[in-house]
Structures are given as C-alpha cells and as structure tokens.
Amino acid sequence: MSDYCIGLTGGIASGKSALEREFAARGIFVADADLIARQIVEPGQPALAAVAAHFGASVLSADGSLDRAGLRAYVFGDETARHALEAILHPLIRTTLLDQCRGADSPYAIATIPLLTEGGGRSAYPWLDRILVIDAPFATQKDRLMERDGIDSDLAERMIAAQASRAQRLALADDIVVNDGSLGHLQQAAADLDARYRALAAAAS
C-alpha cells in the first residue's frame, strides 16, 4: 500500500507517457487517467451508456463501442460538449486513480492526470502529495501531436488550445521537467526525482 502519491500532468503530447515509463522502469507503480478513461467506456460499462445517453447513438460505432475519433473531434470543437463529457467521466476516473494508487506496492505511486489543471487542480485531488509537470514548447507539442495522431495543423492547435495554458499548469507544479526531446535529459530527470520522492515518502511514513 502506498500512502505517498505524485500527480503527473502536462499538456497533450508533452511527453507524459515517456516519463511514466521511466518511473515504471524504476519499479514505481503508475496509474494512468487516460488508460482508466478508455477502460470505463468499454462496451457494457455504465460510463459508456451515460455518454451515449447524453450525446446520442452517433457516438457509437457499428459494433457498439465508442467512436473515439468522432467523439474527440466533436468535443474539441464544442466547449459545452467537452465539459459535459468531462462531468460524466472525471468523477469515476478520480475514484479509480485513488484506489489504484493507494493499492500500489511501490514506495510511492504516480497518478498521471493529463487534465489535472482543468479538472480542479489540487482541490479535486487533495490526496496528491506533490504535482509534477512535464513541460514542452507549443511548437514541439504541435509537431508531436500531428505525427502521433495523424491529424492536421488546425485540429492539433484546437486540441492544445482546449487545454489549460502552460502558465496555468506550471503554477500548480512542485516539480517541473522540461521535455525538449532529449531522452537522456528525461532519464536523468526521472532518476533525480525518483530519489527525491523515495526520500520524501520514507520521511512521511
């Protein structure tokens, strides 16, 4: 059981998954809000029924699964729709994250929460002991997002703009990793933070 939890956040395509992997390689349990968000809208899950009830059957594929690409394009073009989707999914995601982190068997746990800033920050996640922000320049985010998702420049810019600003995220940070594309830098930052978090968790126990 882990009583010390670190919230990891950052803008879309800032490198959260890469930093996650560095902590996991050091034996640290990672709970990922994006993974949980996908799991809770699998066919047969109550959250999928709630999404379909709110947005209509058009958000479902022919096999009854969620049309993720279609829903994403829709909500990123309509702020009201995006907030409605978040209101359905975020409470369940928060509960699941806490349960997974508290059940971790590593010295501390990482909770990766891409929308931590947008979702209420510390007030929505009072159980986080520290917040770690991974930061990347806008142009780097945009290029990575276009390459990763195979989308055009306009959608990439709208997806980034729909999130909190870099300044808003950095204002929440206890720790910051600047991800400028250097894997060596990312690995060293993770090693340094891992040592710090182990010491903090031990002191808090």
TrEMBL record:
<comment type="similarity">
    <text>Belongs to the CoaE family.</text>
</comment>
<keyword id="KW-0963">Cytoplasm</keyword>
<protein>
    <recommendedName>
        <fullName>Dephospho-CoA kinase</fullName>
        <ecNumber>2.7.1.24</ecNumber>
    </recommendedName>
</protein>
<dbReference type="GO" id="GO:0004140">
    <property type="term" value="F:dephospho-CoA kinase activity"/>
</dbReference>
<keyword id="KW-0173">Coenzyme A biosynthesis</keyword>
<comment type="function">
    <text>Catalyzes the phosphorylation of the 3'-hydroxyl group of dephosphocoenzyme A to form coenzyme A.</text>
</comment>
<keyword id="KW-0418">Kinase</keyword>
<dbReference type="InterPro" id="IPR027417">
    <property type="entry name" value="P-loop_NTPase"/>
</dbReference>
<dbReference type="InterPro" id="IPR001977">
    <property type="entry name" value="Depp_CoAkinase"/>
</dbReference>
<comment type="pathway">
    <text>Cofactor biosynthesis; coenzyme A biosynthesis; CoA from (R)-pantothenate: step 5/5.</text>
</comment>
<keyword id="KW-0808">Transferase</keyword>
<feature type="binding site">
    <location>
        <begin position="13"/>
        <end position="18"/>
    </location>
    <ligand>
        <name>ATP</name>
    </ligand>
</feature>
<keyword id="KW-0067">ATP-binding</keyword>
<dbReference type="Pfam" id="PF01121">
    <property type="entry name" value="CoaE"/>
</dbReference>
<keyword id="KW-0547">Nucleotide-binding</keyword>
